[in-house]
Amino acid sequence: MCDTHHIPDGPQLGLSRRSMLVGAGLAGAAVAGLAATAPTASAAGAEGREGTWRPDTDDSRFTMVVMPDTQFLFDGASIHPAPVEATFRYLLEQAEDENIVFLAHLGDITQNGQASEFASVDKAFRVLDRKGVPYSVVAGNHDIGSSTDDTRGDSPYLDVFGPHRFRHAPAFGGASPGGYNTYHLFRAAGREWMVLSLDWRPSPVGIAWAKDVIARHPGTPVILTTHELVYADTYGDEARFSDHGQELWDELINSTDQIFLTLNGHYWPPARTTRANAAGNDTHLHITNYQDRYYGGAAMIRLYHFDLARNTIDVETLSPWILGRVGEGLNALEREEVELTGPQDRFSVGIDFEERFAGFAPVRARPSRPASRMLIPGTVAYWRFDASRDTDRVRDLTGRGNDLTKVVAPGSDPATALTWCAEHHPDQPGHASLYFAGDKTPLRGAHLTTGAHAPLNSATFRRGYTFEAFFKLPGDWDDGRNGWAALISRWGLAREAGKLKNDPDEPVATLSLSGGRELQWCVYPQDLDESVSNWGHSLPLDTWWHVAVVNDGHHTIMYVDGCPVARNPSTRNTGLTSLGLPWLLGGYEYGGKLDQLLHGWIGDVRISERALKPAEFMNAR
Question: How far apart are CA 269 and CA 128, in angstroms?
Answer without folding.
Answer: 28
